[in-house]
Structures are given as C-alpha cells and as structure tokens.
Design goal:
Elements lengths: L4 H37 L9 H5 L7 E4 L5 E5 L14 H11 L11 H9 L10 H9 L8 H21 L2 H11 L9 H9 L8 H10 L14 H17 L5 H7 L19 H16 L2 E2 L4 E2 L8 E4 L3 H26 L12 H14 L1 H8 L4 H7 L4 E6 L7 E6 L1 H9 L2 E9 L4 E6 L17 E2 L5 H12 L6 E3 L28 E3 H6 L3 H11 L1 H10 L19 E2 L1 H12 L3 E3 L4 E5 L5 E4 L4 E3 L3 H12 L1 H4 L16 H9 L9 E6 L5 E8 L2 E9 L9 H4 L1 H4 L1 H13 L22 H6 L5 H4 L3 H10 L1
Parallel strand pairs: 1-5
Antiparallel strand pairs: 1-2, 3-4, 5-15, 6-7, 8-9, 8-20, 10-13, 11-12, 14-17, 15-16, 18-19, 19-20
Length: 786
Amino acid sequence: MAATKAQIGKENEEKKKNISLFWKLYALSIGLLILLFLLAAWEVFGDLPDHTALENPQTELATEIVTADGKTLGSFYNENRKPVKFDDLPTHLVDALVSTEDERFWDHSGIDGYGTTRAAVYLGSKGGASTITQQLAKLYFTEEASKNKLVRGIQKIREWIITSRLEKQYTKEEIITQYLNEFDFLKQAIGIRSAANIYFGKEPKQLNVSESAVLVAMLKNPRQFNPYREISKEKSLQRRNQVFVQMVRNNKMTEEVKDSLKQIPIKLDYNSASHSEGMGTYFREHLRSELKSWAKDHINPETGEPFNLYNDGLKINVTIDHRMQKMAEEAVYAHMERLQAEFDHQQKRNKTAPFTDITDEQIESTLRSAMKRSERWRQMKAKGIKEADIVKSFNVKTDMTVFDWKAEFRERDTVMTPMDSIRYYKRFLHTGLMSLEPQTGHVKAWVGGINHKHFKFDHVETGRRQAGSTFKPFLYSTAIDLLHYSPCKEYPDGEYTIPAGKHGNTKDWTPKDSNGDYGNLMTLQEALAKSKNTISARLMDQVGPQPVIDRAAQLGINIENIDAVPSLALGTADVSLYEMVGAYGVFANGGIYNTPVLVTSIEDKNGTILFQYVPESRDVMNPETAYVTVSLMEGVTRIGSGAKLRGNSTWAAGTDFYKEVITDYPYDFKNDIAGKTGTTQNNSDGWFMGMVPNLVTGVWVGGEDRSVHFKSTKYGQGATMALPIWGSFMKRVYADETLEVSKEPFKKPENLSIETDCDEYQKNQGGDPLKTGNSKNDSSNELDMI
C-alpha cells in the first residue's frame, strides 16, 4: 500500500532532524576539539614549551675527549650525547631516514594528514602516522604515554601543538638534525654521532650506506633491532634490508644496488663508551680528576654556575694520538698475557703463591690490609656493620665476575669468597706505559694498567716504585756535568766500598753486581750498558748523593722522600713512570725540560676557547751533558741489556715464553736508540726507558706487592718484563710512517768539547784533558780508586 503524503512528509521531517542533529553533533565535536586544542594551547593541561625552550631544548651534552689526530677517545656524561650539524650527515643517511620514517617529510607541515587518515581508517594496521617532527616532539617535551584513553588523547593534542611550533621554529634540515642528535641508540649511544662512534668506530660523515641503514633501522626499536645484541642480530639485518626496500620505493636507491647490499653482512667495529672500558681508560680517568678541579674554578656564563663536566658539552682537546694509544695498548696486552702465563706456570711450584720470600704471618697481614682497603669493606663499614661480621662475610662464597686473560672478553663468572678473590687478584702482574714527545711535552700514549674495570690503580702517574738502574743516567749525567767525563773514560770494575761516615753512610757500603764478574777495565758507556753497580758506586763517591738528587729535581722528579745516601746510585728511590718519562725527555731534547702536557685546549659547546695551554719549558741541563748522556745510553741498546732490540737477541731458549717472544718480536731496529733497563731487588720491578730523537717511552712491570715477583732474574729483569712492550710498541709505531717518528741520529751540539767517539778518544789520550775527559780532579780520583 503506497505511503501517504503525510507519512512521506513525516519521514522527511525525521531525516531533516537527523541531518540537523548530525551536523550539530559534528559541529559540537569540532568545537570541542578546537576547545581542547585551545585549552591545551592555553596550557590548561600543563605547561607547553615557549619559544625560548624550543630554541634551546634542555638536553644534556657529553663532554668529548678529542685526540691530537681528531678521533674521539671517550666522553664524560650523564647522557653520552655529542651533537652534529646537518652538514655532518651523509646524504644516504638522510635519505634512509626519510624513506623509512616519514616519506612525505619534505611536504607536510609537521602533521601528515594522509598518514593520519590512513592510520585512523585501518587502525594502524598499515603503519602509524607519526612524523619525524612528532617523534622529535616526543623526545623533547611529551610526557610518558598514559593507559587512560582521554589522557592519551590530550597528550596527542599537546604533541601536535608542539609539533606545529617546531615546524614554525625550525627548518626541515634542523628538525632532522635535532632528531638524530636526540635519539637514544642504547649502549650509551645517545645521538647519531655517539652511535656511529660506538657501533662502527666512525664519524657520521664516514658511514657507508649499509651502516647508515643499520642505524636508521634502530629508530623503530633500538633494543629489538640492535646489531650488537646476539639475540637481535638477525632482526637487525632484516630491518636494515627493509630500509633498503624503502629507499628503492622512494627512488633513493636502485634495485641492483639494493640486491647487492642485502648480501653484505653487518660489520660492527664496537667501541664501548663505558668509563671503565674502551680505549685510554686510565688516561680518561686521570683526565677526569684533573678536569673536575678546572671546572669548579670556571663559571659557565649561560648558567652562572661552575661548568658541569657531564652535561655542558665541553670539548677537551688532548695530546694523545689515537693511533699510538691503540698501538701501546696492543703491545701491552700481547706481552702481559704471555708474561702472566709464564708467571702462573712458575708459581705452581710455589707453596706460598703468589707471594715469595715472605712469611705466612706477612701474607696474612697483606691480605687483611687489602681486605680493609676494599670497596666491599668500605660500603659495609658505612652501613654500621660490626667489623667481626664484615670479616665473616669475606669468607662466604658468592657469585662474581673476575678478570682472566684466557677468558672471552677477559672476564669469567665464578663462585669464590671475597677473601679468595683478593688472593686471586694479587697474582697478577701489572704494567704502565707512557710515551711523550720531548720537544713539546705532549703525552702521546698512556696505559695505566692491564684492565681498568678490574684494576683501577694507575701505574703511570699514581704508582711509585723503585727505579733501579733507570736512575743511573741521573748519576752519570751529574758526573759528566761536574767532572766533564767522556763516555769512553775507563774504570776498573772491582768491588768498591764507600766507608761508614762518608756521604751520610751509617756503615760500610759495598754494592755487588748480579753476575759477580769483576776484574775488568771498561768504559763508562760499557758500565752503564751492563749496569755495573761497582762503577756506579765509584761515581757516586766522586760526585756525592746531593748533586744527584738536585739533578733529579731539575728533571722533574719529586725528591721529597729521597734520602741523600750512596745507595741512591742503584736506584733505591721511589719514582713514578710519569716523572721518569718527563725526565728522560730532557736528555732527548738537548737539556730542555718541557712539562708533560695532556690538554692543549678546552672549548664550550659553541666552540669558544675556554682554556689554551701555554707551554712550560726551562733549561735544566747543558746541551753537551744531555747529548753525552744520550751517547752513554745508546750503548745499552748496542752492547747491553737492550741489545735485544737490535735483532742479535740472547734470549735463553727452552721455554714457550721465550720462543714466542723471539718469534713474534723480531725487532731488528737499525736506527739510533738510547735507553736503560732497570731491575730492582728480588726482581720486584722491571723497567725499560727508551728514546729516539722525538719520542720517549717508558715501561714499568711488576706485581701489586713487591713480594709478587719472579724468582730468577732471567725472567724478572727489565729486559724480559718491560723491554718487549717497548719493542713491540715501537715496531708498530714505525710501521705507520704518517706518525713521523724519527729514525735519525740524535742531534749533536756544535763545538762539542767531550769526545764521544771512543776510537778518537783513545787517539787523544795524553792530549787535551777536556777532550779526553781527564781533568786534574779526574786523574787524582782515578788514582785513588786504582
């Protein structure tokens, strides 16, 4: 039955009402939405960043340590962020980012209408709508997402408002740069520069297409697609390949290139940013303590507060050469692992291992003292725990990770008591290496130990040990200065006694030589090369201890606790490796002492120079004396304990340790090298100080306790413990010609009055006493000794 006009009219009226209601509801929704936007903009739902905050987002910037050759050595940070500029980003990185994260980035105004509509229609199943600008807004300003839908909606509105402001405030290039600078790639890699440094050992500009794609892939989820984590390596590879697909889709890569790149595995060059891991850890820690003092005394004009080492974005330009630091660490680790293996092998026959020549009571005292110095003791003591209970806890087995040369990553998990771990760690031999350019004082390499994570003590600057025969050049240079001696002057090497009462002696002092080979006539050069204690005693008797101490002070040695006694001739003074390298630098630098330099300049985050190092130099020695002393020390590497560097090694055969040293370290140096080995009582310390005209390097090796040492001098001498590190380091240095380390002879002063050529010296015997080194005082002294 056909509808009546009345019915039709009624239906039309209903339709009109429904349509009217729809538009009213629509208008109300739009109005409410506008109102929400206005309320959000009026900061009813919370403060929004003003234009100042947008111009200067409050991000923490790491202090960066930059080496002399322009490499990042490490950072001090709460957040390891080191910003870059857009020009520092490779084009393929930007293309990969936009192609993968925001295809219409260059066209929209912060909010992608197409993407938003697509996300709404498909409920996000075909991708989200978040633009790069929105992601930046989240990183900078948006709160953590709420589970409440209404709150989430308000947060989204605030995000859109901030996004639109960011788009007005910045160019597209600036937005991309800020986003990549702000993103956390994990592993202390905050920002694209830290990520490039840590995962690939490169600056962003040096990244190739594949490496850029790996980092862009991480933007989706840095944990799920992290190439370093074993569990996520395959996902990282798949996601990287998807980035290639997106680049093809956006005409930023061809199909052929994509197919080729997909076949390449991900190759990392991982460099930990941990304060206790990575390169130059001991140097960085020493530097941090020095910079803390500097920061306290300098005001940041932006904050009105002292500079903050961890978030003010300072740039510390240091003298360390990244290449040489790497070579030094490689040389140290290669030798120390083998030396430790030999030491452990020999200790199997030692009932008191790792200690030698001390009683059980002394061992107990040593371990107890170490217990009370431990961090565990300090923390428990701070909590008010009774001492008896603390001691008891040190004998309870617990899970721990310990250092082990043989383990993967040199760490292994184990179960032992804290007291057992103290004894375990006592067995390790330690080392220090420092290398310096004597003409400038610039420190080029600094290795303070074998592993900073497990052994914090720095054996370059903090450690002080007996110098042994490495102290003798100070004595010899004093004799050259005061008595005008030639290296060719001859002495008998028979036993020599300085009687009680002379030079502060409380009793007769008659030093012995380790080999007991007496009755020879030898030159001073031979005497120093073979570390003849008997002839050192004769020289000390002639010049006296105080002038030697004065000489050491001139060379930068801390003499506060050095006694003026004849035994100083044998190196009984405790010195640091830092002091010794600086002192030897004077000999190589013609008598001029340059204070060792670590930092050349400090810049703020804008590149403004805050500190510029002013060289500190002083003349402390006659150039002639310096050269003649160098000439003496050249004999060490020609006819003495350093002759192993020349390729005519006299290593004892019969052990794997020696065979490996001979096989792997055929130094075979032909150039002029001056140096001195040092070995202290009971073989507790092994030293080698070596130098060429523009590089002085010192090495020390020994146990934490002096009672931890090799029993035989064959293994415990400086020529075995320390010299191989020096040789291995220099072998690596010379292999890189860009370092420009000299192979030339040491510069000879003009009008040299002391003869250093022993053939000429013999010809001139009976001639000019200054030319031969036989002054009147000299002759009378020699007659007394003979």
